[in-house]
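lol ok so funny story. i was supposed to be doing the assay writeup but got distracted and ended up predicting the structure for this chain instead. priorities right. anyway since i did it might as well share w the group, maybe its usefull for someone
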Amino acid sequence: MTAVVDAPRKASVAWRQRTVEMEYAWIAPERKAAPLVVFLHEGLGSVAMWKDFPQRLCETGGFRGLVFSRPAYGRSTPRAEGEVWGVDFMHQQAHEVIPAFLDVLGVREAPWLFGHSDGASIALLFAARCPERTRGLVLLAPHIFVEGVTVENIERAKHAYLHTDLAQKLGRYHDDPNSAFWGWNRIWLDPAFRAWNIEAEIAAIRAPVLAIQGLDDEYGTLAQIRGIAQQVPGTRLLELPGCAHSPHRDQPEAVIAATVAFIVGSDL
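and the output, tada:
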């Protein structure tokens, strides 16, 4: 049966003395008894940037899904004028924004978190802080520390944003592409961010973990997912050839098959 995607809506979320509107959409909400998969997008992602992948995954696995855009992304509230993200920006999302967002939507069960890149790092931080709200994790190209290759390619992305049509392309997915791009780019290129490291924190995770990375990932090496396995015993690894930083786009069938088998097998 086709997984039906509801029209995107917005939720009002109180965060740090202000209210932000967060764009979200449900997938197959009628499947009340099915596992819930919450999708956490990458550093330049949004609801629309996922395209049809969440629907395909939920359709194959018989899951429910929840897709959303973090503040500053997609159709959600952009960054405030002059707002500059700090080294703890992913911690803020994991410890403050995501719990508040799930509370507003009335999500009381422990969902599966499916995160990509920055979204995968946020999922790890959420699982470490909120174990009772985490059924399990599927992580695509996560970051647990900063690598030189990551910084080099984010610097290249800055050049592309300034000198090519990248801003125009991002405008298809974000109401304010400057909000999305510069929030992400500036903090990753801030020298203070080079020391960012969450290895010690994720050792608290007890939920099952599947970590996936492409062998051609331009934003990170296999040290990232192998580092997760060192900190979280029982982590399953999937290393994909012919795959760059977005496994769900480069190898969607492999990611879907591995994710469905992982979630279904863990729920037995």
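The chain has a mean pLDDT of 96. The radius of gyration is 17 Å.
back to the writeup now i swear
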